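Field guide to reading this record: the first block holds the primary sequence, the second block holds the structure written as discrete tokens, and the final block holds curator observations. Each block starts with its own label. This record concerns GntR family transcriptional regulator, catalogued under organism Variovorax soli.

BLOCK 1 — SEQUENCE
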Amino acid sequence: MKQVRSVAALQPIAADAAEAPLYRLVKSAMLRAIESGQYPAGATLPSEAQLAGALGVSVGTLRHATDELVAEHILVRRQGRGTFVAVHNADRFMFQFFHVERSDGLRQAPQVELVAFERVRMEEEPAQALGLKAGEPAIQVDNRLLLQGKAVIHDRLMLPAMLFKGLTEKRFRERKSTIYHL
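BLOCK 2 — STRUCTURE
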């Protein structure tokens, strides 16, 4: 990971800046620093004390802004190691949704096996969850996710047919590797 210790590009936030709560101004300043490349993906941020000092705010205010950036997956905290700019690649995307690891503790992207692809009428519960009416046309996809050759997750997708006109099992199989980056 690239180490970044500089706070040179950060400017103190004016004490009379009243257009938003102070922590939001701090958050905006940190986002600008990330967007400008001062803190690239994977980089370690300076300590909270250094950042707070450079921005002219308390550590508590800085921490509030950082908490929001962590919740939005822009920053990642690692206990005892620091705060990092999140790396958004296929592996990170996959493990954000699938909290599964091999029996030896290593993370491995699951193998996705298509079990079923069929056109159905939406039942009450999924229709309600999607804000639709029961009985509307849908595409139901069942996948089995495997780790080390063993099934660990049964995944059922219910897709409103009106949003996926022309989607066939063949086209789904062709696109699946693109969608999941597997």
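BLOCK 3 — OBSERVATIONS
Strands lie at 75-78, 82-85, 111-121, 137-147, 150-160.
The chain has two domains: 22-85, 103-180.
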